[in-house]
Amino acid sequence: MSRLxxxxxxxxxxxxxxxxxxxxxxxxGAGHLLRGNLSASVLFDTVPxxxxxxxxxxxxxxxxxxxxxxxxxxxxxxxxALIAGRAFCGWVCPVNLVTDxxxxxxxxxxxxxxxxxxxxxxxxxxxxxxxxxxALGVAAFEWVSPVGLAQRAVIFGLPAAWSVVAxxxxxxxxxxxxxxxxxxxxxxxxxxxxGARPMVRVAYHDDRCxxxxxxxxxxxxxxxxxxxxxxxxxxxxxxxxxxxxxxxCVDVCADDALTFTLxxxxxRPARLPLAASRRHSP
Amino acid sequence: xxxxxxxxxxxxxxxxxxxxxxxxxxxxxxRQSRAAPTVLxxxxxLADEADFARAxxxxxxxxxxxxxxxxxxxxxxxxxxxxxxxxxPRQVACAMCVDIxxxxxxxxxxxxxxxxxxxxxxxxxxxxxxxxxxxxxGLRCEACHRACPVIDKAxxxxxxxxxxxxxxxxxxxxxxxxxxxxxxQCEHACVMDVAAIKxxxxxxALGRVGAHYRIGWEDxxxxxxxxxxxxxxxxxxxxxxxxxxLNGDPP
Lengths: 282, 251
Known about the structure:
The structure holds two protein chains of two kinds.
Chain A: H1 6-28, E1 34-36, E2 40-43, E3 47-50, H2 52-60, H3 67-84, H4 87-92, H5 95-109, H6 121-136, H7 146-155, H8 162-175, H9 179-184, H10 186-194, E4 200-204, H11 214-218, E5 237-238, H12 248-252, E6 258-262
Helix pairs in contact in A: 2-3, 2-6, 5-8, 6-10, 7-8
Chain B: H1 2-34, H2 49-55, H3 61-65, E1 72-73, E2 85-86, E3 125-128, H4 143-147, E4 155-161, E5 169-175, H5 185-189, E6 197-200, H6 202-205, H7 243-247
Antiparallel strand pairs in B: 1-2, 3-6, 4-5
């Protein structure tokens, strides 16, 4: 793979750029491109944005949010649900930088995790977050969120939160592969549920696929690629909310069998005809 | 089939056990950290700390808007829950900006963004330690009094006789909680190694008068219904009022 991994580069630019914009507004004061942080912010001094999962927890905790935060949460939710899917996890969340680094190092060193958990664990954590919010009257995940801690550590310069970032890295590297983003994070689970049928999807061109499995090696949610090579499924795009539209598979595919595409929101994958047989023999 | 059902049941039990253990630890941490009785909040914050903790979305908008870097977001391991805004008057006190820029951008309702009068802020209340206050030793200081933005209302000096010399006075700083905003300028200005006047959350520092007490000598104090309609006292025909009653048989 000698080509420029352009989606990876774009993603890193967006992730770092967002943090930089927040940090600039928070510390330099002026320059109100994007003010606040990932919990709640204002774009161009006009468009309110807010974390819809934080808003949901606060509603469960019994706080009726002010209109600004409610509108902001709705804007963000509609954007991901209709257009971008679970792109928050791959394109915005700073923890993705950490867990991707852990995954990269784990592959380089040939390490394996210590424990295994089902991917559905994150929905249990999601349920717990809402239940605890309701029971204790505070937004339960927001009080412990590595996402919140990491972004505030960068934007507002809070040193102690870095220990949690280090913890996330070590957990992903040595204990549970793709542990935080793929198994535990309830915010990720929220976007898995919310971004199940968005417009932006990764299309599969089976006539070009050689089943080299390069995409499987890099995919953070490997299970979403499994139907592509399943003769009983054969979808024309990578479906499901777990795909975070990170584009790593698009980057590493040497045969251009995977490309970003736009579908109408709510579209389900069409089944590819068996006639268009692959060049490989499985 | 049996083995399959067994595996499903085991999976459910494992999930429930994991959720219980995780929930107990997580909930325990939340209980521990939401009890933050000593934390000072920005102006216009919901008065009850529990309400504020529920309402703050931890976006830091108030912190960014504070022109004096008074407000900051709490880091992990502080008294305040991580990510919530607080301030430490001994380091930087609240400047009580008349336009209250910190409350304006609050998106969640944790701060009253419509607040107009910074004098109505109740971030805390100043409390004096007379045992270390210079003025209370009979020396001249009054640094706190001079620093108070609501001088002579929130913090006034009361002159009291100083018996050691007999000719001097104590200039006692007296806080009026009805006017103190809790900005902390007094605590910041105190010349002692550790401030002899400190801002504490009002819920920590202040008591509350029972609802049945009537401060009858204050003009606007409500008077208990029917209080003055009791039987008129018997005419005082005794030489010394009350003497008969005191020397009579107990009822």
